[in-house]
Amino acid sequence: MTLFSKQVVASTGKTNEAADYLKRLEVKDVIGREEIVNTEQKPVRRNKWAGVVDPVGGKTLQYILSTLKYDGSVATVA
């Protein structure tokens, strides 16, 4: 999925079950939910994301905000 020529990464708690479906949607990478949780409680980390849609909130959103690129965007339904 090249949305505005960006590479899409999807996170799921069911990586084995959802990976094939997400790959068919042309998602570049599928990562596990445990990879995007702020376990170290760092307020700022290396910038990763230009834009994020987060339907979960909580610790996932905390991690996303700590790795968001400058001038990045987040949409959440928490």
From TrEMBL:
This is Uncharacterized protein. InterPro entries: NAD(P)-bd_dom_sf (IPR036291). Gene3D superfamilies: NAD(P)-binding Rossmann-like Domain.
